[in-house]
Design brief:
The chain is about 30% helix and about 25% strand. A six-stranded parallel β-sheet has the order 5-2-1-6-7-8, with helices on both faces. It binds NADP nicotinamide-adenine-dinucleotide phosphate.
Length: about 325
């Protein structure tokens, strides 16, 4: 009997967990759905059954033994409840940023560093959404050509800020005052995601930098990021400038990227086709296009990368990790 808890099930990422789990139909016998006291008793249709949402409490992991738990309820909830889950023998996949940089906690993108999953002492962290989509092309290029330096600028959707981000876009489009963002997101690009740090970067930018180094096992990777919130409902876009360690033709780069699991190349400028949000929204692929040489620097290219931040950037990546854990258990 395999039991799985899903925490934060009423949120944007949590509800997408349910969608992805239904699509994959993993060998899990029993699910329990948790959220805060606000959602206690709410009915949710899942896997052809009606589930009643339970309040997550300090006793939740004592009362029932869960083999696995998917957490997506913010850092404070993760900090408080995940140690209790791990103590009771549950393997946790966490979407919050709380454990990501802990040494004993692997940070995993399954196409990139799947082997790290099995070095976990109970918690496996899901990276930040903007980091996840960057990792697939960087891993492909680093394995083949080596990477010297990365400059990433993001154009991040409001859904990255949860349900409240979407509400702020819709409200400010109607002229209402913003509640989630500092300025009306309907008419502005905001070069601030999360708080500012002492080094003048935002926390989101430093997450991208530090998480990339950890996932790629390149602690000295030269990488910088600027993260912006834009008036788009879903999917993050990234403009990425990459200096390779060796010369490569555009054809060699296309070949390398197109062979990598879950990368889709869309780059047909004659027909004005390139990765856009509407293409990526609702699926788990990482779309890459606008590949061209940066003629201002040696061995350097530009790319445009788009992915669904709620699916590949959060829920689907976590469910892929769960899938790998289940396969490993089956093969033991
Ligand atoms: N949105 C993204 O693109 C994205 C990407 C990667 C990672 N993440 C991370 O995923 C997490 C959730 O994000 P989201 O976008 O889904 O946010 P959201 O839409 O605001 O949902 C938050 C969820 O957390 C639950 N929750 C809050 N406090 C809780 C508590 N004390 N106990 C149990 N459940 C609690 C909420 O339940 P109630 O409905 O009962 O309040 C809700 O289900 C965050 O850590 C976020 O950083 C988000």
């Amino acid at each position: 009997m395999i039991r799985c808890a899903i925490v934060g099930v009423t949120g944007l990422v949590g509800s997408t967990f349910l969608k992805v789990l239904e699509e994959k139909n993993l060998p899990i016998d029993e699910y329990t759905l948790f959220a805060s006291i606000r959602s206690k008793g709410k009915e949710i249709e899942f896997m052809g059954k009606t589930y009643i949402v339970e309040e997550l409490t300090e006793e939740s992991f004592e009362k029932t033994h869960f083999d696995y738990a998917l957490f997506s309820a913010g850092s404070n909830t993760s900090e408080k409840f995940i140690p209790l889950a791990v103590k009771s023998g549950t393997t946790v996949i966490d979407n919050s940023s709380f454990f990501r940089m802990h040494d004993d906690c692997p940070l995993v993108v399954p196409e990139v560093n799947p082997e790290d999953i099995f070095s976990s002492s109970g918690i496996i962290a899901n990276p930040n959404c903007s980091t996840i989509q960057l990792m697939l092309p960087l891993k492909a290029l680093n394995d083949k050509f080596g990477i010297e330096r990365v400059v990433c600028s993001t154009y991040q959707a409001v859904s990255g800020a949860g349900q409240a981000g979407i509400v702020d876009l819709l409200d400010t489009l109607k002229g209402k005052k913003p509640k989630k963002f500092k300025y009306p997101i309907s008419s502005n690009c905001l070069p601030q995601i999360d708080v500012f740090l002492e080094n003048l970067y935002t926390k989101e930018e430093m997450k991208m930098i530090e998480e990339s180094r950890k996932i790629l096992h390149l602690p000295n990777l030269k990488i910088t990021a600027t993260c912006a919130r834009v008036p788009v409902k879903n999917c993050h876009s990234e403009s990425v400038n990459i200096t390779l360690k060796q010369e490569a033709s555009l054809k060699e780069i296309y070949d390398c990227l197109s062979k990598f699991e879950n990368i889709v190349i869309v780059d047909d400028i004659l027909n004005e086709k390139y990765p856009i949000n509407d293409l990526a929204s609702g699926n788990d692929k990482v779309y890459v296009g606008r590949l061209r040489k940066d003629f201002s620097a040696k061995n350097t290219i530009n790319l445009w990368i788009v992915a669904d931040n709620i699916r590949k950037g959060a829920a689907s990546n976590a469910v892929q990790i769960l899938e790998k854990l289940l396969e490993h258990k089956e093969n033991m």
